[in-house]
Specification:
single chain, about 200 residues, Phosphorylase Kinase, domain 1, 5 helices, three-stranded antiparallel β-sheet
């Protein structure tokens, strides 16, 4: 673990990917971690605050995060404030590739990929975890030793609506989770892994 007060130097060689609100880098000295650095602006700050608040809720509820890259804490970087997360890697220590890559460019059978997602949808529903940005670039496909494959959500955690008070009602919250998941399943997974109405 990085010593307190040390600045993490994030050079271009550690760059992984960029989204609308942050840039993601491999941690230069902690292989199990990556660092997200927000872009400038009020929207990015609001997004970061919302993400951290939702992770705090998940941690407080002791939700198992086997399908979600966990938040590990804040750090200082040469690019400004950084936020440390679990870095999702394959068995060979390479950064896991996105679902988008596996659907569009990989030789891995799509049916094999689709089979991974019913357990993920059920996990989100059973644990009442809201994902605001469910799409193929926010999910990594982690290939572990022995060929075990696990989808891991790395961005878009939480809710992105102005009024969240209705989420305190489990039935309404679960209906929202199911609705978002099934929209994703139809758009990205060709209708596979849809959650049934009786779930």
């Amino acid at each position: 673990m990085m010593g307190k007060g040390l600045i993490v130097n994030l050079e271009d060689e550690y760059f992984i990917a960029a989204g609308l609100f942050c840039r993601c880098y491999e941690h230069p000295s902690e292989m199990a971690e990556c660092v997200k650095v927000p872009v400038e602006g009020k929207k990015a700050k609001k997004r970061v605050d919302a993400d951290l608040n939702y992770y705090h809720k998940l941690h407080k509820r002791n939700v198992g995060l086997e399908y979600i890259a966990d938040y590990l804490g804040k750090c200082e970087t040469n690019l400004g404030d950084g936020y440390r997360y679990e870095c999702v890697r394959d068995f060979d220590q390479s950064i896991s590739r996105t679902l988008k890559f596996y659907l569009e460019e990989s030789d891995l059978e799509k049916a094999k990929i689709y089979d991974l997602f019913t357990p993920l949808g059920e996990y989100l529903l059973d644990n009442r975890i809201l994902i605001s940005d469910l799409h193929s670039k926010n999910i990594l496909i982690q290939i572990k030793e022995g060929g075990v494959i696990v989808p891991v959500i790395v961005d878009g955690i939480g809710d992105r609506v102005a009024i969240t008070i209705l989420n305190v009602f489990a039935k309404l919250e679960k209906a929202k989770i199911k609705r978002r998941w099934n929209r994703f399943a139809h758009m990205a997974l060709e209708g596979n892994a849809v959650l049934s109405e009786d779930r």
